[in-house]
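Input (structure):
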């Protein structure tokens, strides 16, 4: 899982985290860090053909 700070650390290379072992991200704003817009993250995931979990059992 990759959460707060990925926008600052990985910048335009965020999509590469999934090829290197990440299997989830936190979207939107975080407790103390402003994140990217939810739509931006959803578009990135769609471009990678990754499925977004709708409900966790």
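Output (sequence):
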């Amino acid at each position: 899982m990759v959460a707060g700070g990925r926008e600052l650390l990985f910048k335009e290379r965020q999509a590469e985290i999934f090829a290197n072992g990440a299997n989830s991200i936190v979207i939107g704003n975080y407790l103390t860090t402003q994140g990217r817009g939810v739509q931006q993250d959803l578009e990135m995931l769609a471009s990678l053909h990754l499925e977004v979990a709708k409900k966790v059992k």
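Notes: Residues 6-47 form one domain. DSSP finds two helices and no strands in the chain.
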